[in-house]
Amino acid sequence: MLRRYLLTTALFTTLTALQGQPDADHRPGVQAFIDAVKTGSPEAISQWISYPLTRPEPLPAISNRAEFVSRFYQVFDPELLEALAQSSIDRDWSTVGWRGTCYKDGLVWLEQDGKLRALNRTSKAEMAEIEARMARIKKQVHPSVAHFKAPISEVQTASFRIRLDELDNGKIRYAAWKRPNGTETAPSLVLDNGRIDVQGSGGNHAYVFENSGYVYEVYFQVLGTGEEPPVVLRVYQGERLLSEQAGEIIQP
Predict the structure, then answer these.
(1) pLDDT in tens, 6-28
(2) Which of 66, 42, 63, 43 is nearest to 52 (CA)?
(3) Do the Cβ atoms of 25 and 113 come closer than 8 Å?
(4) Contact, 192 vs 173, CB < 8 A?
(5) 92 within 8 A of 103, measured Cβ to Cβ
């Protein structure tokens, strides 16, 4: 949740000056999306989603139309459906450069063809599911790291399993386990002084932790060629790179 907030804040700060009413290239897509929402049909709206549709951690992303239909009423509550259906292109929607078109300063983001690619809103049903998942996660990890405000991510490399969590005091914690040890065991390293380093406006970012002259960096590749690993763990001693391991994101 912290990760999503910081990245979204950085994006809006960079692009606010570029906002303007949807132009001729974007208006047809926006209108088509609104028309689909007016039907209230999960199947109809599912055709206007750019997959995967990311949801707040620890909820899994919605990967395809079938998953969208099954989770439709969890994501789109009546209040959101009515607001979008009654929205006005000229009053409520803005085109923000090459980023696309947004509703209400970024609540919803559409691509040029009208497909929804980001929904920065969490329904009550999703909040209930988040709380249930967090309760399960806290039971699955070692008691020493079971207290946190919100999960950020869990990743796995060839040698390590790593959890990143936002703590109640707003700090970011890094907890690592040497594989094959599971997260129910005591972690081999815990650091709670992390910071986020947002790199550009494409969403690429890293969580950086320092410990006695060593720097641990967990880098997330959001925008790239598609050939890069989604996450990379790097360890430095001063400026010298000691190790680098590609990894994958593990769904809680």
Answers:
(1) 444 444 444 444 567 787 889 99
(2) 63
(3) no
(4) yes
(5) yes
Name the phi and psi angles at 130, rounded to 5: -60, -45
**Among 229, 233, 209, which residue's Cα sits nearest to residue 219?**
233
| Residue 239 backbone phi and psi in degrees, to 5 | -95, -5
82, amino acid identity:
E
Q: pTM of the entire structure?
A: 0.71
Rounded CA-CA distance 71/89 in Å is 27
**113-149 pLDDT per residue, tens:** 999 999 999 999 999 999 999 999 999 999 999 999 9
